[in-house]
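In response to the reviewer comment on reproducibility (Comment 2.3), we provide here a single inverse folding case reported in full, input and output, so that an independent group could reproduce the run without further information from us. The C-alpha cells appear first.
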C-alpha cells in the first residue's frame, strides 16, 4: 500500500520529522497575520518566505505566522494556491503585521487549458521529473506537529524539529531519504480515560514516504491505468498557471485507490501539489490499508484519510515544502453502543535548506517508520524552548489546550 509512515494514537504516536538551524543565529523575527483582502478571513497554509534566503514557514489555522532569520528581513513573500503572490516590505522592528492577499482572477483562456488531454499532461510531467527536481542530495530543517482529538477535544499534542536528508530525484528509488529527530516535546498527553492504543498509518516519515514524485507508486504508468483523469478549471500558485487534474478511481484493485486533485505547473510541467483522499467506498480495504494494530475487542471504522503534499518552486526546481495528513476514524468496544470520533492530524513544514556537505543521516540515527515520538519526547512547558526555531505558530485552540494541561500539571 502507499501510506507507509505511522501515527500511533494515545501513548504511541508515530511520527517522522525534520530539523533546525543553529539557534544562536536566528536573532531576527517577524510575526503577523495573513487575510483575504475581500472578506478579511484568515488564510491558512500560506507559504511565507524571505526572498534570497532558503527559509520558510506556513500560516496556521488563524492565519498567523512567525518567521526567523540570522539577518534582518527586508521583505517577505507570501504564496497560496488561488491567490496572487504578495511581497511586503518589513520595517525594522516590525511585529504583528497584517498582510492582505488578493484572489487571482485568471485571464488565461480557460477553455484552452481545460480542453487539454490530462493523460498527455500527466505523462509529460512524469517524463520531466528528473529535470524539475533536485539532481543532488539536500538537507532540510523542518518543524513537525501532531495532534489528536477525541470528538472536538484535544487529547494529545506533540512537536519536533529535526533533519530531513533527501537524495537526488534522478535516482530510481527513494531509498536513502531519511529523517532524524533533533528536539521534540509532548505538550499534552492523554489521561487514562482517553488512552487508546490504536496504531494507524500516516504521520511523519511522511516527507519521505508520501513524496509522490519520488516514490513512484502513484505515478507508475501501470497504476495510472486504474484511474480516470479529468481536467478541472485551472488555478494559480502565485503568478504561475497550474493544470488541475482530478484522479477518479476506475478499477477494482486489492487496495484502496486515491481520489483528488493533482496540480502541475503549466510552464515547466512540474508537479506542485497533491491533494488526495483515500477511496473509502470499501471500508474493509481502507481499514487494512491504514490500521496497524488495535486492542482485541475494539471496533475500528475509518471515515476519512486526507493527504496533502506541496512542492515549492525555486526558479525552475521544485522541492518538498509542506506535508499534511488527516485521519478520522471511529472506535467503540463491542459491549458499548456509542461510537467515539477521533481525528489525528500531522503537519510538517521545511523551514530551511542546506548543502549536506557530506552529512548523511545513517540508518542508526534515522527515525524509524514504527518509532513513536512519545518514546523520545519529553514534557516541556518552558516558553523559551522553541523560541530560536522556525515553527508553525499554534492556533488559538491549541494554545487553550496547552494552557489547560499546564494548569492540570501544576496542580499535581
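Designed residues, in position order:
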Amino acid at each position: 500500500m502507499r501510506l507507509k509512515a505511522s501515527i500511533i494514537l494515545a501513548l504511541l504516536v508515530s511520527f517522522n520529522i525534520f530539523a533546525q538551524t543553529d539557534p544562536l543565529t536566528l536573532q531576527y523575527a517577524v510575526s503577523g497575520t495573513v487575510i483575504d483582502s475581500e472578506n478579511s478571513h484568515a488564510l491558512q497554509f500560506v507559504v511565507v518566505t524571505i526572498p534570497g534566503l532558503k527559509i520558510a514557514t506556513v500560516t496556521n489555522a488563524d492565519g498567523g505566522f512567525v518567521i526567523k532569520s540570522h539577518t534582518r528581513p527586508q521583505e517577505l513573500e507570501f504564496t497560496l494556491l488561488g491567490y496572487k503572490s504578495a511581497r511586503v516590505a518589513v520595517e525594522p522592528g516590525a511585529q504583528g503585521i497584517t498582510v492582505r492577499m488578493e484572489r487571482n482572477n485568471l485571464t488565461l483562456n480557460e477553455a484552452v487549458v481545460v480542453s487539454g488531454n490530462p493523460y498527455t499532461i500527466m505523462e509529460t510531467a512524469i517524463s520531466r521529473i528528473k529535470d524539475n527536481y533536485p539532481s543532488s542530495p539536500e538537507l532540510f530543517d523542518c518543524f513537525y506537529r501532531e495532534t489528536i482529538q477525541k470528538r472536538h477535544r484535544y487529547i494529545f499534542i506533540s512537536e519536533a524539529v529535526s533533519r530531513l536528508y533527501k537524495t537526488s530525484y534522478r535516482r530510481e528509488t527513494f531509498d536513502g531519504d531519511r529523517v532524524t529527530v533533533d528536539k521534540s516535546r509532548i505538550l499534552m498527553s492523554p489521561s487514562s480515560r482517553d488512552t487508546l492504543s490504536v496504531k494507524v498509518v500516516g504521520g511523519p516519515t511522511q516527507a519521505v514516504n508520501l513524496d509522490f514524485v519520488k516514490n513512484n507508486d502513484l505515478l507508475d504508468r501501470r497504476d495510472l491505468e486504474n484511474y480516470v483523469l479529468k481536467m478541472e478549471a485551472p488555478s494559480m500558485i502565485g503568478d504561475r498557471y497550474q493544470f488541475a487534474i482530478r484522479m477518479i478511481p476506475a478499477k477494482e484493485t486489492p487496495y484502496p485507490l486515491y481520489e483528488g486533485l493533482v496540480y502541475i505547473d503549466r510552464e515547466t510541467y512540474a508537479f506542485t501539489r497533491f491533494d488526495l483522499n483515500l477511496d473509502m467506498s470499501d471500508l474493509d480495504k481502507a481499514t487494512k490499508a491504514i490500521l496497524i494494530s488495535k486492542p482485541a475487542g475494539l471496533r475500528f471504522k475509518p471515515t476519512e484519510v486526507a493527504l496533502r503534499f506541496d512542492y515549492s518552486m525555486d526558479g525552475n526546481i521544485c522541492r518538498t515544502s509542506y506535508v499534511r495528513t488527516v485521519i478520522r476514524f471511529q472506535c467503540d468496544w463491542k459491549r458499548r453502543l456509542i461510537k467515539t470520533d477521533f481525528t489525528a492530524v500531522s503537519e510538517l513544514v521545511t523551514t530551511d535548506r542546506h548543502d549536506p556537505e557530506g552529512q548523511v543521516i545513517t540508518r542508526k540515527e534515522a527515525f524509524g517508520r514504527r518509532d513513536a515520538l512519545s518514546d523520545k519526547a519529553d514534557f516541556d512547558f518552558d516558553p523559551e524552548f522553541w523560541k530560536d526555531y522556525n515553527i508553525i505558530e499554534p492556533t488559538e485552540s491549541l494554545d487553550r489546550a496547552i494552557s489547560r494541561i499546564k494548569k492540570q500539571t501544576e496542580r499535581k
